[in-house]
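Sequence, structure tokens quoted for completeness.
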Amino acid sequence: MTGRRLRRGLAAHAVLTAAAVFAAVPLLWLVSLSLQEPEAVFRYPPRFIPDRLLWSSYPSAWRAQPFARMYVNSVVTSTLIILGQIVTSALAAYALTQLRFRGRGLAFLFIISTMMVPIQATFIPAYIIVSRLHWIDTYWALVMPFVASGFGVFLMRQAFLVVPRELIEAARIDGASHRIILTRILLPLARPTVITLAALSFVFHYNDFFWPLIVTNSARVRTLPIGLATMILTEGAHGTQWNQVMAADVFVIVPILIGFVFLQRHLTPTALTTGVK
């Protein structure tokens, strides 16, 4: 029995190691190309380890576009969207799970039905609204259309349903208000769900290209994906400097990698039955 368990463990680790290597190769190849000459992109056979390291592609890429400002724009707008989605999703999920009112099931059905609407179908009406509000080329246009999320409401509702009713009833007997129940019981126990929602939302909006492109007109509020696209489309005297483009890709994805490293330990399930005998 022990030998069989050992073989299963080794097989599982072998599969996971192969998957990790498979996922890491594109990133390592990106870093390798950023440290080679521009022609290395088209070399065949490709050279994974460069003969010499061209670190100059990184400062050159940083100066090619106003990436400092675009970094601020991407991080600020993504953070504001995350905060808005957490607040609106938590409040809606609390109402759908802890309050009794007529039409509660119908309201939840309407909310999750918004997940079936392609986001592309909402761009034109959303653009008309932000244009009439004179929000074009402002943070408002980048943030406000996304502060509510049907997926976020669904995710938080499912997390709140797992919390034992005994904890909620005990808090109500002790005189806890709705705010106390939400902020001190439900949200702490649903912390992995909150972090998961924040991570998914950050990755999506940090990488979003089309919506920031159509609602911004200047580098003052434009985000990193637009800067990368501009680098690719801009050809200098020697054509597109692909090593600089790869270098820009590297320092653009660094915040996502850092966020994953620091948040992965918070994505494990919590003991939702704490305090219940």
